[in-house]
Amino acid sequence: MLVMSWSAKATAHGAKINYETTQAIKIDAAFDNGDPMSNAQVTVYSPQDPSTPWLQGTTDEKGSFVFAPDRSQPGEWAVQVRQAGHGDLITISMGEDQSATENTADSQVMSIQSKSGSFTPVQIVVMAIAVIWGFVGTALYFSQGTKQAK
């Protein structure tokens, strides 16, 4: 039995989205490797109707998108950014008291990182063991079949 193996760096296809709250909300979307999600589809859902898009648009070439939520609708605003099957969904809390403090502050910068495409070291080790065990199990299965046939 010949087993060939090689190693290559695997790049996950998760996304990282940052946002800055001023009078409007600025979304900065990038892939895990730091490349901006240019011309990605953006869908914003209001707290009053989270199943119907409140606003749709696309990011610019730098992965940025700006929108001004309706401050009369406090609650969790959901923002989904997608491009070529990759993307993420974040929620932004907008409260009645929060909108008053945001108007007095210059800006507030927050960052949310998706873990959808990132694996912890423990997960990577478990996946590697599972793959190796799969190869060993397959080899043992086929080697038993040839012994019984004789």
Name given to the CATH homologous superfamily of the largest domain: Immunoglobulins
Reading off the top of the CATH hierarchy, the class of the largest domain is best stated as Mainly Beta
What's the shape? elongated
Percentage of residues in strands = 35-45%
Secondary structural class: alpha+beta
Low-confidence stretches: 1-12, 99-116
The H/E string reads: EEEEEEEHEH
Helix content: 25-40%
Q: What is the topology, as strand order, of the major beta sheet?
A: 5-2-1-8
Biggest sheet character: 4 strands, antiparallel
Number of helices: 2
Structure description:
It is built from 2 helices and 8 strands. It has 150 residues and is α+β, with helices and mostly antiparallel strands. The strands form 2 sheets. Strands 5-2-1-8 form a 4-stranded antiparallel sheet, with no helix packed on it. A 4-stranded antiparallel sheet has the order 4-3-6-7. Strand 3 and strand 4 form a beta hairpin. It has helices at residues 96-104, 121-149, and strands at residues 15-21, 25-31, 41-45, 53-58, 64-67, 75-83, 86-94, 108-113. It has 2 domains: 15-113, Immunoglobulin-like (Sandwich); 119-150. The chain crosses the membrane at residues 122-142. This is Carboxypeptidase regulatory-like domain-containing protein. Keywords: Membrane, Transmembrane, Transmembrane helix.
Topology:
Layout: E1 15-21, E2 25-31, E3 41-45, E4 53-58, E5 64-67, E6 75-83, E7 86-94, H1 96-104, E8 108-113, H2 121-149
Antiparallel strand pairs: 1-2, 1-8, 2-5, 3-4, 3-6, 6-7
Keywords: Membrane, Transmembrane, Transmembrane helix
Protein name: Carboxypeptidase regulatory-like domain-containing protein
Transmembrane segments: 122-142
